[in-house]
Amino acid sequence: MAIGIKSHKASRRHRHSGHPLQRLLNYGHKYQRQIWLAVGASVCNKVFDLAPPALIGIAVDVVVKQQDSIIAQLGIKNISGQFVVLSLLTVVTWILESFFEYRYKLLWRNLGQNIQHNLRLDAYKHLQELELAYFEERSTGGLMSILSDDVNQLERFLDVGANDIIQVITTILIVGSTFFILAPGVAWMAMLPMPFILGGSVAFQKFLAPRYADVREKVGLLNGRLSNNLSGITTIKSFTSEDYEASRVELESDAYRLSNAKAISLSAAYIPIIRTLILAAFTILLVSGGMQVIDGKLAVGAYSSLVFLVQLLLWPLTRLGDTFDLYQRAMASTNRVMNLLDTPVAIHTGNINLPIDMVRGEVEFNNVTFAYYERPPILKHLSLSIPAGNTIAIVGSTGSGKSTLVKLLLRFYEAQHGKIYLDGVDLQSLNLRDLRRCIGLVSQDVFLFHGTVAENIAYGTFEATNEDIITAAKVAEADDFIMGLPQGYETIVGERGQKLSGGQKQRIAIARAVLKNPPILILDEATSAVDNETEAAIQRSLERITVNRTTIAIAHRLSTIRNADCIYVMEHGELIESGTHEQLLEKNGVYSSLWRVQSGLK
Fold it and tell me: Which residues belong to any copy of the ABC transmembrane type-1 domain (predicted)?
């Protein structure tokens, strides 16, 4: 077999650790320009938002000092002219404030949408690269919670919270500087509660972090329960377990509610505490500043500006409670999403290309041992050879390791010991996608996607024409029943193909494999759940599509594999018999006993 070598660029993701915000910033480095533009718009908006108190102070100064006002010192002595200038400044300030508010909302929200989109897509792509064992240890609903709800939490924070934090910082810097310039004698009164407010905010953040991590964990469990129940609705109904399942959902939902309630009870206390500190500072400034005006130590205009500015400085801090609430929820979600992205890929692709037209289909298992996680070995030093173009069958009792061979051949799992070869090349050296493209799998548990019959047949062979699809369906003896459906090949099959019978789904799966036209075909209990008539139809189609290709048939019904070139009998992860149907009957062993039971012979 001609095999080409191509350079394999390492694609392993750098693992990140540390604070979730730093992890998010590391991820979002490609959005630096958009982030700086959004930050700039937020700062400019807040600068012009803080201007009106200064304009009020200037207006009071004009009224009180008239020809000696600040504007008059610029050369405009006429009172009317001063108010015209003041009016123009006010109009420009409001226009610019509105413009930058539009800009920061546009930039932050689009940034949230972009990061949400790309983060979800990256997380999903990475999830697809993980081995099957990862999914077996986690619920679908829990993973859906990460891809959907947790990613959405980040968007909510970027929509609102990021701007609030930047504007609070801008307010503190501008207003604090203004206070020390205009009235250094009373500035300390306005700034007095700041350390307590900021220190309390940081303390609240650290105190709330584990609470919100628990909230995210609980919502994952709840989503897992809901997803599992919706998938198993037929079983729930058939066993009249609606009340039982409703109680289990109630239990998970109540745990989520109580976890949220603990976090809410703490976050709700933030604003009342902050308000008390703000009230103290405002009252002191109001009285002390007023006394300084009376004593002539502070100008009336400056005092008017300070009274408004202190409110602009302190009252926005009350929103920090909601902001930190969004922030903590977003950081808890960030950890979950980043932990998923940082999950190492256990099964890596090889660096050898595998052109499908060059595959002969010779398969060899050499001394293979495999055990699922925390279980005893299901395959023990197993060796078997499958010649190219032959049809071999694997039979044995449930749990003997038959389907595990298929999973190892497709590299859904890696063997702990031993090697598996395709045309003499170690599977681990082959390009993983090329390997799977040359293998067609028809499983007992057929999965059909929500879509049309034609789309499901063409799944994996997306460039197929309508004629190709119909030809494949005819080979699989599926064309007759498809044409009897309401919209023929355009009939929607429903989620998981629930609108079709088991036999119809099997024939669509066979048509899918026919269209793929792989050099290796795997039939994993392909006829075990169908009636005799459907089985006969499937068998006729299988006889046609197995010609000139390596075929591995796993079956309980021995009648379906009696014509195989070689039959392997497995028990407890080991090969105990092999040979043709006639040879195994002559051995009068396990296979012979199974044949007599299934054929009704004594």
Answer: 36-329
Task: Delimit the domains of the chain by residue range.
Answer: 20-341, 358-599
Tell me the residue ranges of DSSP E strands in 315-378: 363-370
Task: Give the tens place of pLDDT for each residue, 131-186.
Answer: 888 887 777 777 888 888 888 888 888 888 888 888 888 887 887 777 777 667 66
Give the integer Cα–Cα distance in Å for 426 and 422.
7
Mean pLDDT check: name the lowest of 180-194, 231-245, 554-568: 180-194
Of 384, 502, 389, 501, whose CA–CA distance to 443 is shortest? 502
Count how many residues are written for the chain.
Answer: 602
**CATH superfamily entry for domain 20-341:** ABC transporter type 1, transmembrane domain (1.20.1560.10)
Residue 3: what pLDDT? Answer: 35
Angle of helix 242-267 versus helix 194-231 axis, rounded to 10? 170
Contact between residue 54 and residue 305 where contact means Cβ atoms under 8 Å apart = yes
Residue 529 structure tokens: 């759940």
**How far apart are the C-alpha atoms of 360 and 350, rounded to whole Å?**
19
Distance separating alpha carbons of residues 504 and 516, to the nearest angstrom: 19
Q: Which residues pair with 370 in a beta bridge?
A: 379
Q: How far apart are CA 5 and CA 560, in angstroms?
A: 40
**Per-residue b or e along 396-427, where b marks 16 or more CB atoms closer than 10 Å to that residue's CB:** beeebbbbbbbebbbbebebeebebbbbebeb
CA distance 163 to 161: 5
- Residues 6+ away with beta carbon under 8 Å from 46: 166, 167, 170, 171, 174
Helix (H) or strand (E) holding 455: helix 453-457
Q: What is the DSSP track for 420-447?
A: EEETTEEGGGB-HHHHHHTEEEEESS--
CATH class of 358-599: alpha beta
